[in-house]
Amino acid sequence: MGSLQKLPNVSVLPLAATPGKSIGAAVAAVSSATRGKLDYLVNNAGTQCVVPMLDFDIKQAKDMFEFNVWGLLTVTQAFSPFILAAKETIVNMSSVAVYGSSKSAVAAISGGLLVELKPFGVNVVTVMVGAVQTKPFDNAPEHHLPPDSS
C-alpha cells in the first residue's frame, strides 16, 4: 500500500474485514475526511490456502469463505452510505478450487449488487486478476498436505 499512499488525492485506510472496531474506525475516518462521500471502495481483503480440493480441510474452507465473502459484505454495507452519496464505484478483487469458489461468490455478489445499486448511480466492478506480487501468506496459518495426498 506504500505506493498508493504516495498518490495525490488517495487515502489508504487499512482495516480488518471482520465486524469490529477496525471497520467502525475506518467508517468514522472516511466520514470525517470526505463529508460523507467515497469515490471508490476497494475490497481487496482475502485469505487463501493453496491445497488440492480433495485434501482441503473443510473447516479451513468454511473459515476462508467466511472471511472472503461475509467480510466483503460487512465492509460493503458499512461504507455503502458514502458510495451511494457519491454515486461512485465499488471494486471487488477476485481471483482463481476452494479459494476460487469463495472468490466466485464475490463475483456473483458483485453482479447482484450492480443490479441493485445501478438505479442509484453506483457502479460495481469485479477485478479478476492472475498472479500478482503480493504477500498473501504472511499472516496465513501453515498448511501441510496429508501423507496420502495425490
From TrEMBL:
Highest taxon above the source species: Eukaryota
The protein's UniProt keywords, in alphabetical order, are: Oxidoreductase
Q: In its keyword annotation, does this UniProt entry include Protease?
A: no
For this protein, the record's Pfam families field holds: adh_short
Q: Hey, which family's this protein in? A: Belongs to the short-chain dehydrogenases/reductases (SDR) family.
- Protein name per the record: Uncharacterized protein
